[in-house]
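Appendix B. One record, verbatim.
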Amino acid sequence: MWLPEHEAGIRHSWEQTHKRNYKNTIYRFKKKAIEEAGGDDPRDIQKVVPKNMSSSDWEAICGGHMNAPAYRDKCKKAKQNRMTEKDGSITKHTGGSISFAEHGRRMVCSFIH
């Protein structure tokens, strides 16, 4: 075992790891359900129960969490943000970097002007 004074740190690490794993697992389940259901309507997703989860737990997640207005608004805003158009193209999560194609266009413009 470990020393009693390490208990709080170990407990914190354990909880953080499992929070992340749970979040990733639910994300994968939801992504697969969206693909199989053919859309992101929670009522359709709810019918595609992951084989590693009970139907009652999946219904609680789909009917409660995924169908909550705050969650739906958050998803809608995130989808709109991913589709933001800037300089004639859809922006990506690039941290400010530009594509090679865009860099080439800018270089051509700077040499012409």
